[in-house]
Design goal:
Elements: H1 3-15, H2 20-32, H3 34-56, H4 66-89, E1 94-98, E2 103-107, H5 115-127, H6 130-146, H7 151-180, H8 185-214
Helix pairs in contact: 1-7, 2-3, 2-5, 2-7, 2-8, 3-5, 3-6, 3-7, 4-8
Length: 216
């Protein structure tokens, strides 16, 4: 089987896994719209490419040092917690008022993030997640060994993987955006709080994990 098709299989597997980036992607698509979600997905993909590039050139060896793992875990967990708190406290920008007499949208004037902001959010949230590094370090090690470090085969494999993950993320954005039309403002606010709590939990788990590893 061609490496690109093997990469697609891995990409399909990764596309159904749950994680902080997925929940934030869906929340962004519902809260800000399809294109905001697509830009967030682009940021995630760019961060994956960055991590894989580092792994290929051996930079990931730095993370094998327990002290570096500890620092990376604390930073990553703190970012997740901070973003989770922001998401939990963030309110929907649009309140829909429905009644028998009139149906109008009341827009609260708030500053809408510039397009690059969504890309940066996806990039930072994903690249600071230690789990992402562990995933791609493992994948790069295994694939490099399987293809005997042949660059073209490794490249095709991860093109298939990342292309599939990005494509499915775009599909998730589209579905989430369509669902938005059937959600009430309270539901969107509730989603923000739910995603925020999940991100905080993910962050706490990361920090606890690195502390436990440092004491063993």
């Amino acid at each position: 089987m061609h490496p690109i098709f093997q990469g697609i299989i891995l990409g399909l597997t990764l596309s159904v896994t749950l994680g902080p980036a997925l929940f934030s992607l869906l929340q962004t698509s519902i809260h800000r719209g399809f294109w905001a979600g697509a830009r967030f997905a682009l940021g995630i993909s760019l961060s994956d490419i960055t991590v894989l590039t580092f792994c290929y050139f051996g930079v990931s060896q730095i993370l094998r040092n327990p002290e570096n793992q500890f620092v990376a875990g604390i930073i990553g967990g703190s970012v997740l917690i901070a973003y989770g708190i922001y998401t939990f406290l963030h309110k929907s920008s649009t309140i829909q008022n429905n009644n028998n007499d009139k149906d109008e949208d009341i827009n609260i004037k708030i500053k809408v993030p510039k397009p690059i902001i969504h890309i940066l959010k996806g990039y930072i949230l994903n690249i600071t997640n230690p789990g992402v590094w562990a995933l791609w370090v493992t994948a790069m090690t295994g694939i490099s060994a399987g293809y005997e470090s042949k660059f073209s085969s490794i490249l095709y494999f991860f093109i298939g993987t990342l292309g599939t993950v990005f494509s499915t993320d775009i599909l998730k954005c589209f579905i989430a955006h369509k669902i938005k039309n059937h959600l009430k403002p309270k539901s969107i606010t509730g989603l923000n709080k739910f995603v925020g709590i999940l991100l905080i939990i993910f962050g706490i788990i990361v920090i606890i994990t690195v502390f436990l590893k440092s004491t063993t």
